[in-house]
Amino acid sequence: MALTRREMNLLILTIAAIVILLADSYILSPVLEARGVARDEKAAVIDEMTQNKEIIETSGPIARRKWKMMLEDGMAEGAAESESMIINYLNDLSSDHGVSLSSIQPEYGEKEEGIGVIEFIIAGNGHALDSYEFIWNIESTKMPLKIESVHLSSKDTNSGQVSIQLKISSIYSYEMPAVEEEI
User: Fold this and answer.
1) Which residues, listed in sequence order, are joined to residue 105 by a DSSP beta bridge?
2) Which residues on neighbouring strands pair with residue 104, listed in sequence order?
3) Which long-range contacts (CB under 8 A, 24 or more apart) does 135-139 make?
4) For 71, what's the count of Cα atoms within 13 Å in the CB-facing half-sphere?
5) d(Cα 92, Cα 44) in Å, to the nearest integer?
6) Which of 48, 121, 161, 172 has minimal Cβ neighbours within 10 Å of its Cβ?
């Protein structure tokens, strides 16, 4: 079957149109879409980098003020002072809220660049509401204390007495030993 010149031109145009549509669907559109996504991601990264740069530039004075406030509000100079201050705070707080502390065990943690960590394991008991207030005051104090874990268990379902086990941590500043340079 021989095709006329007109039919041959129509067949070539039809095949060319199909090839162009397939190329657009499978090659050109995905490439352009990926390019747009990459452009959007680049803009987002540049925005994030700009925000982070602004935070770094402005956080110097803020960080110094926050550090000064922590020192004024109870961050101790040295492990012994910090331990004593926190134990006194916990004892005063427990007596204020009617919570009986049976043990406070300090454990010294890591030290890095002038900052040390002390963890305290605390055990005691008291009425449920008093225990809640005791824990809330530890959490909301201006002292550098962080509650790491809390375990409450009921001693007696009728009396409302609970047993408390807390693990809290605190930081303190210490003088780093001077390093002598060898010449």
Assistant:
1) 121
2) 122
3) 135/164, 135/166, 137/93, 137/97, 138/90, 138/93, 138/166, 138/168
4) 11
5) 51
6) 48
- Please give the structure tokens belonging to residue 14: 């039809």
Cβ neighbour number for residue 28 with a 10 Å cutoff: 11
Q: What is the pLDDT of residue 166?
A: 92
3-state DSSP assignment of residue 1: coil
pLDDT grade for 121, boundaries at 50, 70 and 90: very high
- Residue 166 β-bridge partners: 122, 150
CB 95 within 8 A of CB 137: no
| C-alpha span between 43 and 15 (Å, rounded) | 40
Q: How far is CA 146 from the centre of its chain?
A: 13
Tokens of 113: 């660049």
| Strand, helix or coil for residue 183 | coil
Q: What is the pLDDT of residues 37-80, one digit of tens each?
A: 999 998 888 888 888 777 767 776 766 666 666 666 656 667 78
Q: What angle do CA 84, 131, 90 make, to 5 degrees?
A: 5
Token readout for 42 is: 């680049």
Is 172 exposed, middle or buried, given 0-12, 13-18 or 19+ CB atoms closer than 10 A? buried
Per residue in 156-166, pLDDT tens? 777 788 999 99
Cβ neighbours around 110 below 10 Å, total: 7
